[in-house]
Description:
Order of helices and strands: EHEEEHHHH
Radius of gyration: 25 Å
Region (Disordered): 132-165
Number of helices: 5
Distance between the termini: 79 Å
Number of domains: 1
Mean pLDDT: 83
Amino acid sequence: xxxxxxxxxxxxxxxxxxxxxxxxxxxxxxxxxxxxxxxxxxxxxxxxxxxxxxxxxxxxxxxxxxxxxxxxxxxxxxxxxxxxxxxxxxxxxxxxxxxxxxxxxxxxxxxxxxxxxxxxxxxxxxxxxxxxxxxxxxxxxxxxxxxxxxxxxxxxxxxxxxxxx
Length: 165
C-alpha cells in the first residue's frame, strides 16, 4: 500500500509500547516486544518530572489533530515525538528529520510531493475510522435516549383572551 512502513495504532497498543519501554529501562540490552514504525492519531505525549527524583513519567493525552510517532525499528530503543500533522510524522519516521531541518539533502517539500499518494492513503484510513466511530457513537446515543410522548399543544395567551371576550 505505502512506501513508508508506518502503521496506525490504537491507544492500547501505544500504551503497551510505553509500558514495554519502561519495564526494560534498566536493562543493558533491552529487547522490545514490538518493532517497527507507528503513528497514534489524536493523542500527544506529555512528560512529568517529579521533584527530587530522576524519574521521568510519560503520559498519552487526548488531543485532536495531533499525532505521536513511535520508532522502534532497531528493537532496543523507542523513539517518540509529537507532531501537528500526519505528513510531518511520516516525514520523521521515513527520514529521521524534522521539517525545519535545513542541513539535509532531502527537503520536506520534495519528500511530501514524492509521497503524496502514501499520505493520502493514510488520511483516507483515518477518515474511515473517524466516520465509523461517529456512527457508533450516534447509534449508542440513539439507543440510550428514551422516546418522548408528543407534548399537548397549548393555546396561546392571545387566543385565550379572544375567547374570554
